[in-house]
From TrEMBL:
Protein name: Spermatogenesis-associated protein 20-like TRX domain-containing protein
PANTHER family: SPERMATOGENESIS-ASSOCIATED PROTEIN 20 (PTHR42899)
Signal peptide positions (record): none
Pfam families: Thioredox_DsbH (PF03190)
Amino acid sequence: MAEHTPETTSSKTHKHTNRLAAEHSPYLLQHAHNPVDWYPWGEEAFAEARRKDVPIFLSIGYSTCHWCHVMEVESFECEEVAKLLNDWFVSIKVDREERPDVDKVYMTYVQALYGGGGWPLSVFLSPDLKPLMGGTYFPPDDKYGRPGFKTILRKVKEAWDSKRDVLVQSGSFAIEQLSEALSTSARLDKLPDGVPQKALKLCAEQLADSYDSKYGGFGSAPKFPRPVEVQLMLYHSKKLKETGKSDGAKEGLSMVIITLECMARGGIHDHVGGGFHRYSVDECWHVPHFEKMLYDQGQLANVYLDVFSITKDVFYSTMSRDILDYLRREMIGPNGEIFSAEDADSAESEGDTRKKEGAFYIWTSREVEDVLGEHANLFKEHYYVKPSGNCDLSRMSDPHNEFKGKNVLIERNSTSAMASKFGVPVEKYLDILGMCRQKLFDVRSKRPRPHLDDKVIVSWNGLAISSFARASKILKGEPEGAKFYFPVAGTNSEEYMEVAEKAASFIRKNLYNQQTGRLQHSFRNGPSKAPGFLDDYAFLISGLLDLYELGRSVFWLAWAIELQHKQDELFLDKEGGGYFNTPGEDPSVLLRVKEDHDGAEPSGNSVSVINLVRLASLVSSSKSDNYRHNAERLLAVFEKRLKDTAMAVPLMCCAADMLAVPSRKQVVLVGRKPSAEFDSMLAAAHASYDSNRTVIHIDPNDDEERGFWEETNENIALMAKNNFAADKVVALVCQNFTCSPPVDNPKSLESLLSK
């Protein structure tokens, strides 16, 4: 469990304190002592802008954002800049992770107007919140022919005074246009025949065209781990294999394998502490942007699990453990909640007031020698550590020489080749590397830590719950006696299920209102003011379905069904189809968007289609038909996107194909729980990769389970009653309204499912 000293803003006296000091968000608290007179997002700020008749300056970022820190130091801590902001504007700070709905409105505006976006997001608004102009990071002074922040402030002030009407009219028009474009409706009740299959094929082809055959990954630097791309290629590869196109299937799988291997060996992977950094600035996955985000860890653990279930190569199961063990060690709170992120920046030594990117993670050659002694040379050669520094593999790795003399660990040669070079058996070589990493970890732990954002976000916890739950059974496929090396703990995989269930329990207790059936979006020192958004419901439902399917109580499945009902009530466009991103109850949020882009995180609509397909295979026919209808209408909303720019929506392409599959495979396990036999059969049910499979398990002697299924799906209840045997666990595989004869041992079940 994570043990971090809580950050406080009251440990010393400050020259300035603003309204952000009363907030809970770590990002807002970071700005609580700026000379800028910041307000949090809310009516107090809007009323003040109306009273003073001045524009609003809106600054959006998050606590682990490097360029947000830079702009704070350069501009928001500067008395001169603060005076301009305080005299001419009402300044509002927003944490994008706490208010993704507000961020979405103004990020969409900046992207539409200027063709790009990012954080910090800097937008000027009228007092009625219409955007006037915007951008991202601004340096304080004019540079390279571009205006600095002070110049921007003066120009906006002049424009407000001299041509306010034109500005406001332009902002209103922009919001109207965006609203129309982003709340599109379905023209049909479902996608035309063939569209799902064509979209899946098109997306796979577009990704293959962008594949980097040298270093893996799709696209060029900077390289982001976008797990939805890997999911698409794995799904498409399996479809090709099923239709006899084995060469195409192998080619797609090979792209995924090379990508995940290059990422694991690269500096984007934290070799000493586990987990992955946000992205690589170069094409070879070497020098990362060092922040670590929970949404990356959850998704990456899942795709490494998927590739393990296909290849049975322990390299991939070890990588999923590496990520999950990092989360267990550093990112889990005292009540099972999973925190959001760790910063890229930290002080180089205690007492330093200025933080540097990557300071916690990088090493000099001398440091490695001093810590590792006799094994230093072996370790340095394995991880390409050099006295001059190693950030030289690409001209993009370190263009400003920030890491001169410093090393970001990267594996450039195979372990077997290196072991042979040093004349050491491979297992002994791996032992030495693990011991070295442990020593460096212990030394690193004494360095000033990067800031931990200990906010708990429902959607990101949903992604992590899924990976912990799936790992608990999929990792049972590892060979007996498999060895693991630090930072992998080699824990019993069932412990991962306990982590998943505790995280779900925390959300249920702290971020769910049982009277209203609603979620809140996030938690830090109490629930946030922001309501749950579409992603919170969709990602959590997905995690709860995995909790149930991987062996936990029907309690979690029942909650998933309740949450889906509430999601439909709050977000579903009953007329036009698809889900909006917000409940639409906050008048200060000017856009309700139907999000489709599967980026660093999947879109709530893509995940919702998969949830609906999964739920439809669990419930009785009338409810099942309703789920499928909502999924069909949703996909019809995004018909043009699927046809024209499939690469932007890889998970939606998979979801569309899943819905089009004529009959989803159901695996029904019947037997006494808990028992070792039941766990073994459950592991067998999940041993192979198959996104078009639902696993149902029932103990007819359990009154709660029997009652649930009698109410939810009588066929399952009857099947359990007719196939129950007191002394064994039996499995039936059902598809196309036909079930296989029952089998009662794991190998037979695995064989049945591999056909």
